Amino acid sequence: MLKHPKAARSVPQSLSVAPRFGMEGVTIPRHEMPVGEMPPDVAYQIVHDELMLDGNSRLNTATFVTTWMEPQADRLMAECFDKNMIDKDEYPQTAEIESRCVHMLSRLWNAPDPRQATGCSTTGSSEAAMLGGLALKRRWQRKHARGGRPNLVMGINVQVCWEKFANYWDVEMRLVPMDGERFHLNAEEAVKLCDENTIGVVAVLGSTFDGSYEPVAEICAALDEFQARTGIDVPVHVDGASGAFVAPFVDPDLVWDFQLPRVASINTSGHKYGLVYPGVGWIIWRDAQALPEDLIFWVNYLGDDMPTFALNFSRPGAQVVAQYYNLLRLGFDGYARVHGYAREVATRLSGLIADLGPFELITRGDELPVFAVKLRDGVTNYTVFDISRALRERGWQVPAYTFPKNREDVAALRVVVRRGFTHDLADMLVEDLKRHLQHLDKQSGPVHDAANSSSFHH
């Protein structure tokens, strides 16, 4: 991990090699290259043993990222590790597979003319979101040649990639704070912050704080009224990092996508509920007019003239191939089954935790299969941070965190249910939680809080 110098901590400068490797008494440096070579089995075992300290990813309820794929997908990815996605002339079939995925997603999200699908793969939804934001800014600049500082309206619950976008590309973030029991953006508050310099409104389909959907259709309707009143046309970008791969399959009646004319672009994470291992996202525009041509670069590379509009250039083709495998393997019904089961597990698990007594549900997992809980007001001798620490003793990673501005008083635990998290695992989590609550009830006061807990940073 890249560390800032201010975050440096003292660690041993060398690593002792275990005698069973046949290298008794040997040490290797931790922070510089060894002088000589070592046998491949030795190098493998050293790295393998260190990685055991990472814990079991299947027990990580903090991450939205896929932690299990079918062995056939594993094999396909291994066959594609050496393929550079950007070398479309050398790997034309990988490029064709990317194009097929873009067309499938365009149809899934009801693009007006999916035959003219406009989009691409990215390294994740953060890059995809930035591309969507760049297109919004460039379209605004074309209409506002006289200048002014552009702004982007969103809820304070957005993922940090939007803060990066605003910082990197000099866009003012206009954040709607949480208020009372409203933990995300709504239509009324979004419109209040819009003006002639607003490049767009970001609506999140699946907040990472609690798994809830923001009301995309209501936001679009309010912006329609705003345009009728002021003449200002504000497009919407849907950050569907998680929800864009959930809602189409389990919420078919929810209108949130390109069926709404004001929705200009949608991003998603293939490696979240797209069910692919880390390393792939997608950005889709409603049509070619929504993607300014001056953001597309035509590159003469290895003898072929090709378009590119991703931020990254060289990147692996394996995750794109794995995405296509999932779309082909599962189809619409398969995704509906997988995510329907996840929601079933999430809603049942949230109910079991609520029944334990000390907890109050913030959400119950009936939108994203994700829910958040807090302790009831009468519980004062332990915190959600104590619970999170205790659960780590059995390998569970259940994040504890505080909500942002205006609701910093809310401290929550969050559980993300994804493929591979079964009813059986849910039952084991509840039993471990019961066990730890018996001990925590005997505490005289809290031990961990937001200031001294390092288990999770939202």
Describe the structure.
It is a single chain. The protein is of the alpha/beta class and about 450 residues long. The chain has helices spanning about 40-50, 70-80, 90-110, 125-145, 160-170, 185-190, 215-230, 245-250, 320-355, 385-390, 425-440; strands spanning about 15, 25-30, 120, 150-155, 170-175, 200-205, 235-240, 265-270, 280-285, 295-300, 305-310, 360, 370-375, 400, 410-415. A seven-stranded mixed beta sheet has the order 3-9-8-7-6-4-5, sandwiched between helices. A four-stranded antiparallel beta sheet has the order 12-13-15-14. Helix 2 (about 70-80) packs antiparallel against helix 9 and helix 10 crosses helix 11 (about 425-440). The longest helix is centred in the C-terminal third of the chain and has 37 residues, at about 320-355. The protein is globular and about 70 Å long.
What percentage of residues falls in helices of 4 or more residues? 25-40%
Number of strands: 15
Strand residues, percent: 15-25%
Summing up helix and strand content along with how strands pair, one would put the structural category as alpha/beta
EC number: 4.1.1.15
Modified residues (N6-(pyridoxal phosphate)lysine): 272
Family: Belongs to the group II decarboxylase family.
GO molecular function: aromatic-L-amino-acid decarboxylase activity; glutamate decarboxylase activity; pyridoxal phosphate binding
